[in-house]
Structure formats: C-alpha cells, structure tokens
Amino acid sequence: MRERLGEMTPAERRVARTLLATYPTAGLESLPQLAESSGVTGPTVLRFVRKVGFDGYPAFQRSLRSEVQARTEGLPALYTTKGATQDDEVLRRSQEAFGRALDATLTSSSLESELAGVDALLADPKRRLWFVGGRFSQLVADYLCMQIRFLRPGCAVVGEAPERRVLDSLELSKRDVLCVFDYRRYQQDTIAAGKLAVDQGAVVVAFTDPWLSPAVEYARHVLISHADSASPFDSLLGAFALTELLTAKVVVALGDEGHARVSELEAIHDRLREAPALSAVAEGKGAKTG
User: What is the β-pairing status of strands 155-157 and 177-181?
Assistant: First the structure.
C-alpha cells in the first residue's frame, strides 16, 4: 500500500490511510464497513484492492488474515515451520534467506523517498535524536545511535528499564526525533514510547518488519526490513543494513561538519590511548631513578 500510494486517486488514498491508521483491524471489516470508515464508495474500495494486486476483496482479506497470523506467530510455532533441519543445510539455507532479506529490504520502491525524509531529520543539528528498541531490537537502536553520535551531537538512547523508559520519553519535545525499532512479537512499552513522543509533538520514525508494528500508527516515516532466516529467530540483518545505509546518507548530508567532528573525536581517542602509555613510561623512569 505504501509503495503504491503515488499511483492512487485521492479517494483510494483515503482507503489506504484508513487501513494504515488502524492496521490490521480495518481490513478485516466487511467491504461496506471499510468504505464507510474511509468516506468512499464500495467500488472505490474494489478499485483500491485491485490496485494493490488482488482480484477482489475476498482475496485481499485472505492475504490479510495470513499476514495477521504471521504477525503474531511465536517461537514455538516458528520451530514447527523453520526449526529442525540437517546441519549441512544450514549454511546454504542461511545464504539464501539472508540474500532474500537484503534484496527485499533494499529494493522496495518506497525506500528511497522514506530514506530522504529520515536522513534529513537525522542530519538536522537543531533536532535532538532519541533511539528506542525492544529485547533484541535495542541492539539495532544502540548501533544507529553510536554511529550518528560520531557525526553530530544531540543523540541519546531511551532507557530499557520501565521507569527509565517513561522518564526519558517525557523529555521529548517538538524539535525531537524518536527512532523506534519494533519487530514481530512487538513490545508494548516500545510502542508506548512512540505514542508518548507524538503526544509531545516529536517526530517518530518507525523501523519495523513487513507485518508492521503498531508503532507505525504514530510514525511520520516507516522503514521496513525483511527478516528471512534459516532458524525460528527472525534475522535483524536487514535492520542493521538500513542503519548503515542511513549513516552513509547522513555522512553525505553533513559533509565537512561531520568530517570535522569525526576528526576531533579520533584525536581525543588518540590522546587517551597515549596517556596510559606515557604514564607507564614516566613511572618506569621514576623507579630507575629511585
């Protein structure tokens, strides 16, 4: 739907916005109910579902129900579908899965326009940047934060502990950007951080999977990474690839300013590395003198 918004009429875009705002609930309603919720006619809904690749509304709903099932699928169920296999197949299956994940992540027709909006936010020195994730996705949030901090000041990670998460989220303001990382088996306190950020006027960027975290409801930009893997654990390879792609674009956007900050930081690190060595040399000389 997001990829094809540019091809739609204004009425069809109203259907898309209704579905995206209350995903997936709106799409599970009857055709007349969706039409009424969107403020359009039934034929408009039919044109919309055909434009996004379905023969009719029943096919659209079957696909949506399958997606909803995948969205909530837990590790025990994934063990059944992606679990035990021959050990000598793991390398081949991993290569194939990772290739699919990266290809699907980086060839989305909407990716370039979304990246342009996000890198402009991350490179804007007037905005504070915040990063938050879940049990596993916090690793990706931390990684992007560390990279961007080398290029510009004003970056912080929202704490993982519940009380810290609330306190940090309350600090967000209208000039801030919150990058929310949330993937399948979505985490409620991560989603809540996105809602709180929007309530306080901040801009939310959601990093999620093809099944879409509920956090996308609050996001101005949505970056989707695919999670194919050879095990029951969804891969974060595509998510990490997006962070490195974004970092490369921020490097270009900041230009000499980013280069100067990196050079300054490296000079400080060099001095810190040299300080213990110089101290040890000085101590050694003192011992000989004594």
Answer: unpaired
Round to whole Å and give the CA distance between 54 and 66: 14
Structural element, H or E, at residue 289 = helix 256-289
As a whole number of angstroms, the distance between CA 120 and CA 142 comes to: 20
Among residues 186, 221, 185, which one has the least CA distance to residue 206? 221
Q: How far is CA 1 from CA 12, 19, 23, in A?
A: 10, 9, 12
Residue 261 Cα distances to 155, 177, 210, 249, angstroms: 14, 21, 36, 16
Say if strands 177-181 and 221-224 run parallel, antiparallel, or are unpaired.
unpaired
Residue 129 pairs with which residues in a beta bridge?
A: 155, 177
What is the residue-level pLDDT of the chain in tens, covering all 290 positions? 877 877 889 999 999 988 887 777 888 888 989 999 999 999 999 999 999 889 999 999 988 888 777 776 665 666 665 655 667 788 888 899 999 999 999 998 788 889 999 999 999 999 999 999 999 999 999 999 999 999 999 999 999 888 888 888 888 999 999 999 999 889 999 999 999 999 999 999 999 998 888 898 899 999 999 988 888 888 999 999 999 999 999 999 999 999 999 999 999 988 888 876 555 555 555 545 44
Closest CA to 136 of 185, 102, 74: 185
pTM: 0.76
